[in-house]
Design brief:
Layout: H1 5-11, E1 15-21, E2 26-31, H2 34-39, E3 54-58, H3 59-63, E4 74-78, H4 84-91, E5 97-101, H5 104-114, H6 117-120, H7 124-138, E6 147-151, H8 160-164, E7 169-174, H9 177-185, H10 188-196, H11 198-209, H12 221-242, E8 247-252, H13 253-258, H14 260-271, H15 277-284, E9 291-292, E10 295-299, H16 302-315, H17 317-333, H18 335-346
Parallel strand pairs: 4-6, 4-7, 5-6, 7-8
Antiparallel strand pairs: 1-2, 2-3, 9-10
Helix pairs in contact: 5-7, 9-12, 9-16, 11-12, 12-17, 12-18, 14-15, 17-18
Length: 348
């Protein structure tokens, strides 16, 4: 990169704000082609290679770059492990969409909002300003007919409310609690992830419900998994309640798998993108639906998923049954949990 990066940044989306050093108030910019965005499952450190051009600049210098008026990004928020990367890849095939999957800088600002406001030292007004600046940076495209569609990580759901407050547009992806439990319990990696996130999810759920939910050590494998569903569903329901001007659609991933062509068209239509029935059919019968979306080099399919979930349901039947009763009891105690549970059940 060179000292003329400001003009490049203002020109299109090729200079990507990859990461921020919030203590030093700096931003790491990397050079990304449109093809690179299309291929990337995660826009984080996993993309770093010796060939990736990078440059560290001050946050203030990036914020000072004048940008043309840009359409607000469209968002895919989700509860985790519900096909969000697959949906993003399918919609990202549309010429009118520039799909950004899991920008790391978005997660950094979510962490500030939930756990580090004192450590970073931003006031509420400064947090809002930084989030607005970051959103404008991520709004840049390569062509005028494109609109950015950000597929956030599930850990970014605390930002759904501020990002959608000003008439935002989003798809909320979820699945039933029972299916979610089967999904998490079906794989060692997903169980490890659920355990690693249990502390922050206990904190976040407690913030929503107004109660300290205690120690993660008391939770079984299935209850630890259920904590993820509860935390993220409650967070998304809260965003919908507090963003009455937002255009939000909910999509049950299992319904999508049952009717992929119709549901993909409905998702595109929700976002205002054209997708004809023949093109939708081509997409859902193509290679994207037969690959593991986070790592396309591996085969994966709806039928294989069904087999794995059926096996998990059998192995963990007792733990799942007890966990469903546990959540029922929580729903009787906390209106926020009851609302999330009712939202999921109403979409079946």
């Amino acid at each position: 990169m060179n000292n003329d990066w400001q003009s490049d940044f203002a020109g299109d989306a090729s200079l990507f704000p990859h990461l921020a050093d919030l203590q030093k108030d700096q931003v790491l910019l990397s050079t990304m082609s449109e093809a690179a965005f299309r291929q990337a499952s995660f826009l984080d450190q996993r993309l770093f290679t010796p060939d990736l051009q990078r440059q560290v600049v001050s946050w203030a210098d990036v914020a000072s770059v004048p940008l043309s008026p840009l359409a607000k990004p469209q968002y895919i928020f989700h509860i985790g492990h519900v096909g969000s990367t697959l949906i993003s890849r399918l919609l990202g095939e549309l010429d009118s969409v520039l799909a950004l999957r899991e920008p790391a800088i978005l997660r950094q600002l979510a962490d500030v909002r939930v756990t580090m406001p004192a450590e970073i030292g931003w006031t509420d007004e400064e947090q809002t300003e930084r989030l607005d600046q970051m959103e404008s940076w991520l709004s840049r495209t390569f062509r005028s007919e494109q609109r950015v569609m950000i597929k956030a990580s599930s850990f970014v759901s605390p930002l759904a409310r501020p990002l959608l407050a000003a008439e935002g547009m989003a798809l909320f992806l979820f699945t039933s609690l029972e299916r979610y439990l089967q999904t998490i319990l079906a794989g060692d990696a997903s169980k490890q992830e659920a355990a690693a996130l249990s502390d922050i999810r206990l904190l976040r759920l407690g913030q929503h419900c107004g109660e300290n939910f205690g120690d993660k050590e008391t939770l079984s494998f299935a209850k630890t998994a259920a904590l993820g569903w509860l935390c993220e569903m409650v967070t998304l329901c809260d965003a919908e309640i507090h963003c009455p001007g937002a255009k939000i659609a909910w999509l049950d991933f299992d319904n999508f798998l049952d009717h992929p062509e119709d549901e993909l068209q409905a998702a595109a239509r929700h976002f205002g993108h054209e997708l004809s029935p023949p093109n939708a059919q081509t997409l859902v019968s193509g290679p994207i639906m037969k690959q593991y979306s986070k790592a396309p080099e591996f085969d994966y399919s709806a039928s294989l998923r069904a087999e794995l979930l059926a096996e998990a349901a059998q192995i963990h039947a007792d733990d799942i049954r007890q966990t469903l009763l546990w959540v029922d009891e929580m729903a009787r105690r906390f209106p926020e949990v009851a609302a999330a549970k009712a939202k999921a059940e109403s979409r079946r």
